[in-house]
Specification:
GMP Synthetase, Chain A, domain 3, alpha/beta, 14 helices, AMP-dependent synthetase/ligase domain-containing protein, ANL_N_sf
Length: 466
């Protein structure tokens, strides 16, 4: 198992990095050895608790500046791997997060080893990944390299491959693992369920590895019906933290009243803290005195990556609701004693619904959606976003994103057809997911769902949560 960097070295670089100080430029890779040696000679010892919590808004203000600054001293633009955030805004270029290229490769190898240690994938497995490639999205190369790091062999299904072509690949290469966003996996699985029995018997799929969005109990059950005895696992990650935890099959079986997912993370690679929800309240004068919660208590997840040093991620409030727990016995018995002593459980309850929501593998930040909906030329008077199961789909396998819009037609507004195009861009709607996107233009407020108390229009409703 690859190990992370020394926390003291990470904090040394963080103390002179624009993300956490008033320094103008981050270091270049050639500057790093000298900076670390200088710190070792210093008597000053930095502590993690001395760093304030890092918020997305402040972090990305610095990233926006550094991304376009072409000064030769700007280490942000040197030898970096660029990934885009999962939060879709659809307005302008996606915000990017840069990490050192070599550090990124080391991290993928380490997470690949975590997959192998937990028995998710390893030598002898052949994986067909359906992760999207296109625009600046990096899930395809990310997951391909992680699987390879576990010892598996990977086939990448291109975005233009039809489902019948995927079936021929699965059969022709005797692929035993399929991977992708939950939506992609469910689409392929539903297609497989319609195939003649003779065709289905030629498939040897034994494992599913999903990413990007939670899998509902109904979706999990459907997979079990299509692939009896299937081993369902998951990987979690982000542009800022990269891939950082996995959920082996022992942890992915959930019930209808269980709205969380358990992930195994390695404390040698990631340091996690959970803080009270009160830290989000800018009027709370005690935020500066907030302390991490004890294991088992639910709050906001704060990440410090031990695998990112040149562009550190220190005490980053990532937006997930989480609690921390010891490694359960079913997992402990399947991993080595050495690894088990470092492994721990991050119980993820999803993104804080006050600030974001997810659909078809993308996270959408509410401030970005609200800003877009206020675009003057769109003429939107009121809107409502609803996540629900598919029309007539009692199994809740597919999640539909329904957008209800009421607009005016004053001079200066774009046409309904133009607005439709803008909304499709805003919510990342393409041919592969347009059947799950339901845009409705209303003629009055009667078409909106309202709160039972103040009868106010609710901007976001999640009907998939029961």
């Amino acid at each position: 198992m690859a190990k992370g960097f020394d926390l003291r070295d990470i904090l040394t670089i963080a103390s002179i990095h624009p993300f956490y100080s008033d320094v103008v430029y981050p270091p270049r890779s050639e500057d790093m050895p000298g900076l670390l040696v200088k710190n070792q000679e210093s008597a000053k010892q930095l502590e993690l608790s001395s760093f304030s919590l890092t918020w997305k808004d402040s972090l990305y203000k610095e990233i926006a500046r550094l991304t376009v600054d072409q000064d030769p001293q700007n280490g942000f633009r040197h030898e970096t791997y660029i990934s885009t955030t999962g939060g879709g805004s659809g307005k302008g270029p996606p915000m990017v997060f840069a990490t050192d290229s070599q550090e990124t490769r080391q991290q993928r190898a380490a997470i690949g080893s975590l997959l192998r240690s937990c028995g998710i994938t390893g030598p002898g497995d052949w994986v067909m990944t359906m992760h999207v490639s296109g625009h600046l999205y990096r899930a395809l190369d990310l997951m391909s390299e992680v699987f390879e790091g576990s010892g598996a062999t990977v086939l990448c299904a291109g975005s233009q491959m039809e489902q019948d072509q995927m079936i021929e690949v699965l059969i022709g290469y005797q692929v035993n693992v399929i991977s992708g966003d939950t939506g992609q996996i469910m689409q392929l699985s539903r297609y497989i369920s319609t195939l003649p029995e003779e065709k289905r018997r030629q498939l040897v799929i034994k494992k599913v590895v999903y990413t990007s969005e939670p899998m509902t109990p109904a979706q999990h059950s459907f997979l079990g019906a299509v692939f009896p005895g299937i081993y369902v696992s998951s990987v979690i990650g982000s542009a800022e933290a990269g891939p950082w935890a996995v959920s082996p099959a022992e942890l992915t079986e959930v019930t209808n009243d269980q709205h969380y997912a358990d992930f195994v993370y390695d404390q040698r690679l990631m340091h996690l803290e959970v803080f009270p929800f009160a830290i989000e309240d800018p009027q709370n004068s005690r935020i500066v005195d907030a302390k991490p919660l004890r294991d088992g208590e639910k709050g906001l997840l704060v990440q410090t990556s031990l695998q990112r040093m040149r562009h550190p991620l220190v005490r980053y409030v990532c937006g997930d609701v989480c609690s921390l727990h010891p490694l359960p016995e079913p997992v402990r018995t399947n991993v080595s004693a050495e690894d088990a002593s470092y492994y721990k459980i991050a119980r993820i309850y999803g993104r804080d619904r006050r600030i974001s929501f997810d659909w078809y593998g993308e996270y959408f930040e509410f401030p970005a959606i609200q800003e877009a909906m206020r675009t003057e030329s769109w003429g939107i008077l009121q809107y409502q976003i609803i996540r629900r199961s598919g029309q007539g789909d009692q199994t809740n396998i597919d999640v539909v994103l329904e957008i209800r819009v009421l607009r005016h037609s004053e001079p200066g507004t774009i046409s309904q057809e133009q607005l439709t195009g803008e909304l499709r861009k805003l919510f990342w709607v393409f041919e592969n997911n347009e059947a799950l996107f339901d845009l409705k233009f209303l003629s009055g407020y009667a078409g909106f769902s309202r709160s039972s108390t103040g009868q106010k229009v609710i901007n976001f409703i999640d009907q998939t949560q029961g």
